[in-house]
């Protein structure tokens, strides 16, 4: 009886490992399709809503913005009501009207944080991923992918992405952290291969004459 129990337990373990490997591979395949599609575009412009909640304190906020991207170049511009972030691939300018500053820093190639600027490719290293099946929202059928950081020292505990099954466009991404916070980026009005104005990924001081420049390089 003991041997039968061991065989049964071992078979269950193999079944679980096999299912996990299948779920991981399927999730990888879905995200690879998404990344391949987005990287095929010369430019991307999309609106987003950032919804933040703290499940411990019951606090939250809601912010709208717009992103301009050149996929693969690390060039982006993110605009919200009181802030903007611009990168030419080497330097990043954080424009914070609410505190009257522009902070200048070098782009960190090892930065693993998730934002609208890298939401299409951040998953490629440092995450275990699982296909969580399908859901529906706003009349769309969505793939659900869950990602967990390999490095347990990260503040992020889980990322949940939902992807339109027919277009391979990202619907939203929810980031959970160890402090009980959740941040959801929801994308909309995606436009591709649009001609951007020259200098869109550069900072021009004369556009912000009243802000203090803080150089952190």
What does it look like?
- With 217 residues, the chain is α+β, with helices and mostly antiparallel strands.
- It has one domain (2-215): outer membrane lipoprotein receptor (LolB), chain A.
- The chain contains one helix and twelve strands; from the N terminus they run αββββββββββββ.
- The protein has a twelve-stranded mixed sheet.
CATH architecture: Clam
Largest sheet: 12 strands, mixed
Instruction: Kindly report the spatial arrangement of strands forming the biggest sheet.
Output: 7-8-9-10-11-1-2-3-4-5-6-12
CATH level 3 topology: outer membrane lipoprotein receptor (LolB), chain A
Structural class, from helix and strand content? alpha+beta
Task: Please identify the top-level CATH class.
Answer: Mainly Beta
Mean pLDDT: 82
Radius of gyration equals 21 Å
Envelope shape: globular
Termini separation: 68 Å
CATH superfamily: Lipoprotein localisation LolA/LolB/LppX
Key words describing this protein structure:
217 residues, alpha+beta, globular
List the helices and strands and how they pair.
Blueprint: H1 2-39, E1 44-54, E2 59-70, E3 75-80, E4 83-88, E5 91-96, E6 101-106, E7 127-137, E8 140-149, E9 156-164, E10 170-177, E11 181-192, E12 212-215
Parallel strand pairs: 6-12
Antiparallel strand pairs: 1-2, 1-11, 2-3, 3-4, 4-5, 5-6, 7-8, 8-9, 9-10, 10-11
Describe this structure in a few short sentences.
The protein is an alpha+beta fold and 217 residues long.
